[in-house]
Design brief:
about 15% strand; 2 domains; Rossmann fold; 7-stranded parallel sheet; alpha/beta; about 425 residues; 14 strands; globular
Length: about 425
Amino acid sequence: MSSVLWGLYQAAMAAMLLLAGPVLLLRRGKHYLPTLSGRLGRGPADVVSQGALWIHAVSVGEVGVAATLAHALPAEIPLLITTVTPTGQARAQALFGAGSARPAAVAYLPFDLGFAVSRFFKRFQPSSLILVEGDYWPLLLRAARRRGLPVAVVNGRVGDRGFGRMRRLQALLAPLFSAVGRFGVQSAEDRDRLVALGVTAERVTVTGNLKYESPEPPRKPELEGTLAGVAGGRPILLAGSTMPGEEEQVLAAWEMAGGASRALLVLAPRHPERWNEVDALLHSRASVDAVRRSTLVEAPGDSARRTGVILLDSLGELAALYRLAAAAFIGGTLVPKGGHNPLEAARFGVPVVVGPSMENFREMAEQFDRRDAWRRASDAGALGEIWKGWLDDPAAARAQGARAAALVEENRGALERTLAMLGPMASPPWPPKDLP
């Protein structure tokens, strides 16, 4: 790519940030304003991470994959973890911060502007780069190539919408992909799509989905005990990672299944900035007796034990709480958002129901469909019927969950294949030589 095109790209990126910045700060300022310095590549030199293996994970789901990989790497390899979203950053701090089993430096990915990228590389001086699922930024990859960093993709995927956009821009992708030495992808379809986009076949390996390999989240005994006290013997229905337009449907389904007299509903919105919005929705409904999880911690008294709905206004606790659920709904599926990871619930043998939208997990969804490892609900009415059926017949619910747990177990092996694909990037001596 010529210097003129690089200049035009940076100008376009700067213009986009200037236009989007006020909107983001207005809507989510409390999350983004404190992160601005890091996104501009600023910050003190981090001696611990200099020369580290850099793992980039966009948000919460990718951070979980990064943690799975990180725990399999030799302890003597220093790590740097970057994210894009504040929720991903919070999750990375929880998993890799001081006192964790696998500590690492944690930072925000810099904006793809020349000065910010240069500051970032000067600050951290990484030795190699792993992109979780593929988050390709032209200037960043150009800087990595110029510095001779080995670059690889793990758990790579090329979704339907992404593939369509990339096909239209294929002529510009060559310098983007040429910086990546190896691609480990989830499926044969992902491999074929990368090859169609111009990546040579010998650089692409089907390694499987690392999300099947994620370690079991640690238990939270105090919170589990509090929830058990609130439930008072009722089964728990858990709606995780819900998106705008879904909470109303989940509440309608819960009421159809019997409401507070039959089950305690734990409602976990995907994005923290929506906690107050969902809380207002809950309190606008006279028939719903709801409390926030933070209130339970402060005052888990007798009044809390009469509640019907708990709003999970916390980060990093959802995955561990699925083990308590009699049934789970996975959000981002009753509205056209592409879905979220069902494995956090399925691993515990919890019966799972999702809506029609699972485009972001197409291969996984096809596996669950083929094995009857979950149920599909077209709308709130169907979700309510499914939940009611499981509450009426716990044995059927357990059988449904058992099929999901078996599917998770059968799909393990991606971690071993990923480590083999990474080769010298995943083993001492450190730092590695360039990937072949």
